[in-house]
Amino acid sequence: MKGSPVKQILLITALFSLFTSVAWSGSYNYISAEDLSQRLSSHQETLLVDIQVQDEFSEHHIAGALATYAYPVKSDADRQKLSAAITEAKQSSAPVVIVCPRGGGGAKRTYDYLLKEGISTERLLILKDGQQGWPYADLLAQK
Q1: Burial readout 12-31 (b: 16 or more C-beta within 10 A, e: otherwise)
Q2: ∠137-95-132 over CA atoms, to 5°?
C-alpha cells in the first residue's frame, strides 16, 4: 500500500468505522401498508401493537390495534406500557406489527425491546411509514 502512514491510518480507520457501523446496525422486518391491508381484509390473525401517544391514537388508528401509548419508547416507563402487548404476543403465534407515528425510531426501539422480551424476529414487523403513511381509511377505527 503506497502513500503516507497518516493516509493509510485514516483509510484503515474509515474502513473499520464503516464495517463496524454496518455490523452493529440492526436489521428490521417491515410490512407495507398495502400488504398489511390485505392481511387485515382477509382476516389473517395479526397483532397490531400501536405505540402512538394517546391523543394521536384517539384521532386515528387501525381498527383492532392494541393501544400502548408507549411512544417514544425511550424510558423504562415507556417500555412498561408494552407489557400487555408482550403478554398477548406470547399467547399467540400471530405476526406482531408495530405501528408508530412514522415507522421510525420508536418502532425500532419497540422491535428491539419485544425481541429482548422473547418475541422472535420472524414474527416482528414494522409498518413502513407508520400510521402517518396509512392510506386505507376504511380500515381505521371509527370515532
Answers
A1: eeeeeeeeeeeeeeeebeeb
A2: 30
Q: What is the pLDDT along the chain (143 residues), one digit of tens a residue?
A: 566 776 666 555 544 444 433 334 469 999 999 999 999 999 999 999 999 999 999 999 999 999 999 999 999 999 999 999 999 999 999 999 999 999 999 999 999 999 999 999 999 999 999 999 999 999 999 87
Q: Global pTM?
A: 0.81
Task: List CB contacts of 98: < 8 A, sequence separation 6 or more.
Answer: 49, 51, 107, 110, 111, 114, 124, 125, 126, 127
| Domain 27-139 = CATH 3.40.250.10 | yes
Q: Which three cell numbers stand for residue 87?
A: 403478554
Report which residue type is found at 77. A
